[in-house]
Design goal:
- 43% of the residues lie in helices and 30% in strands.
- The protein is α+β, with helices and mostly antiparallel strands and 89 residues long.
- A 3-stranded antiparallel sheet has the order 1-2-5.
- Strand 1 and strand 2 form a beta hairpin.
- Helix 1 packs across helix 2.
- It is elongated.
Length: 89
């Protein structure tokens, strides 16, 4: 399912227009992105948590040349599904 399909299905289920649903979804995505950028955890009851995880700097190997390279430290988002979501799968 892509974003357009999500908007269409949500609009039908909620009885809203696609335009209003698109605005609401975009606003939710912006808020979630802003919270994660601040390093906060986003908890969605019954669905799961979005957590910012820090990856430390590490040594790796270039598969083409075999040369050892340093991969810089970075941040990523980790999704931890809620129990209800796990059980529904």
């Amino acid at each position: 399912m892509n974003k357009t399909e999500l908007i269409t299905e949500t609009a039908l289920k909620a009885g809203l227009t696609k335009k209003d649903t698109d605005k609401a979804l975009n606003a939710a995505i912006e808020l979630i992105t802003a919270e994660l950028a601040k390093g906060e955890t986003v908890k969605l009851a019954g669905f799961g948590n979005l957590v910012v995880k820090e990856r430390p700097e590490r040594q790796s190997r270039n598969p083409r040349t075999g040369e050892t390279i340093t991969v810089a430290a970075s941040k990523t988002v980790q999704f931890r599904p809620a129990k209800a979501l796990k059980e529904s799968l």
